[in-house]
């Protein structure tokens, strides 16, 4: 009788949660909290600030996307996968270190502010990495690539906000650097369902696109 081959070991894998923070998808901030940088504080004022979240954005996040993120995070932790969080956060008080895109769109949160913290529901464990970023892709404004290579990560599972912006940039940059990328399609969202679908179509060649349920069943 021929014995069944042992399953191949999993590639060293990290779950990367992108910009799931109070300033992007959290509740209304506390009174007096330091939010987005005001144009008047910048030496070169940006274009008009980003509009508020679209109607229905928060409800969809809370009802549909957040539960999937919680499932993915819980599974990653219980399976011993590396977990890394990114948050949009400036290094400087006036945001002069931000990317041109962030300056033009008025996007940025003060270092150490309430808005720059991961939401309570996904709060990082003490030894999980939290990387503040000031550009769409964490590969451009953080040491993410250096850290992944030091840890030995070859496969990156990506989820978070927004599908057509930071997720798009992150997936493409990771693939270009040689990582095997998986995007959790139901643990990402954009400002509309149409934009989410368009983003998934745009970068499908850079990654595998699976649901959280498929992620969990694949890695069992």
Q: How would you characterize this protein structure?
A:
By secondary structure, the chain is of the alpha/beta class. It is built from 8 helices and 6 strands, in the order βααβαβααβαβαβα. It has a 6-stranded parallel β-sheet, sandwiched between helices. α2 runs parallel beside α8.
How many DSSP-defined strands?
6
Summarize the helix and strand pattern as letters: EHHEHEHHEHEHEH
Tally of separate domains: 1
How many alpha or pi helices?
8
CATH class, named: Alpha Beta
The span between the termini is 26 Å
The main sheet orders its strands as 3-2-1-4-5-6
The gross shape turns out to be globular
Amount of helix: 25-40%
Q: How would you concisely characterize the structure shown here?
A:
Helix content is 35%, strand content 17%. With 220 residues, it is α/β, with parallel strands linked by helices.
């Amino acid at each position: 009788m021929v014995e069944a081959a042992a399953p191949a070991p999993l590639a060293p894998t990290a779950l990367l949660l992108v910009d799931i923070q109070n300033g992007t998808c959290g509740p209304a901030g506390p009174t007096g909290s330091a939010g987005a940088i005001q144009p008047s504080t910048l030496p070169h004022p940006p274009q008009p600030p980003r509009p508020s979240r679209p109607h229905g954005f928060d409800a969809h996040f809370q009802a549909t996307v957040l539960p999937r993120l919680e499932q993915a995070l819980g599974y990653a932790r219980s399976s011993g996968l590396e977990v890394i969080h990114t948050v949009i956060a400036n290094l400087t008080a006036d945001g002069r270190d931000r990317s041109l895109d962030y300056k033009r769109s008025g996007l940025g949160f003060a270092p150490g502010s309430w808005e720059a913290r991961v939401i309570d529901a996904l709060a990082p464990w003490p030894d999980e990495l939290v990387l503040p970023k000031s550009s769409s892709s964490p590969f451009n404004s953080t040491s993410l690539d250096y850290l992944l290579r030091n840890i030995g990560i070859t496969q990156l599972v990506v989820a978070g906000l927004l599908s057509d912006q930071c997720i798009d940039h992150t997936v493409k940059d990771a693939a270009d650097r040689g990582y095997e990328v998986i995007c959790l399609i139901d643990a990402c969202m954009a400002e509309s369902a149409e934009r989410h679908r368009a983003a998934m179509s745009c970068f499908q060649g850079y990654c595998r696109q699976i649901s959280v349920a498929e992620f969990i069943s694949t890695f069992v």
